[in-house]
What we know:
Layout: H1 17-33, H2 40-47, H3 51-58, H4 61-87, H5 92-108, H6 115-122, H7 131-151, H8 157-177, H9 183-197
Domain HTH tetR-type: 16-76
Protein name: TetR/AcrR family transcriptional regulator
Pfam families: TetR_N
Amino acid sequence: xxxxxxxxxxxxxxxxxxxxxxxxxxxxxxxxxxxxxxxxxxxxxxxxxxxxxxxxxxxxxxxxxxxxxxxxxxxxxxxxxxxxxxxxxxxxxxxxxxxxxxxxxxxxxxxxxxxxxxxxxxxxxxxxxxxxxxxxxxxxxxxxxxxxxxxxxxxxxxxxxxxxxxxxxxxxxxxxxxxxxxxxxxxxxxxxxxxxxxxxx
Length: 201
């Protein structure tokens, strides 16, 4: 069972080799050290390009930040597709729980937590080019929870989706900020309990 995702077309498909090196370097550095602390000089040096090349390819650091998050979003969707293919959930409820199970595997290799949440803290301006990517990623998760709840015939799917999203995102924050190593497992159990007791239409 695949998720309802439209990855669309991206300028990334037209990146030059230098552009690819810049984006790869920026992605590693931004996630590891934070967006604001990493300057374009550091990124250019890591990518073995000039600062002019960086600006020629991406226009500004802000646009590069947006490209970093767009790529991370595509990686996340591909990861979820692979997880569902491996887990083979048979019902919509099982899809929801598989999404929580996938989160556990995701954070196991992501010591700094959610790159989107981290970026939202650093990028306070609502008109930053990366904000639509951040908001869109979280809205997509809610929409997927809602769609699966509707397929399952669960009542008030929007309310259920809100609660599931709070569990999902709360687990990410607790994992990173509260150093709660089993946050995603706790959230998964809470989601299972919620689904078991939720009324049906």
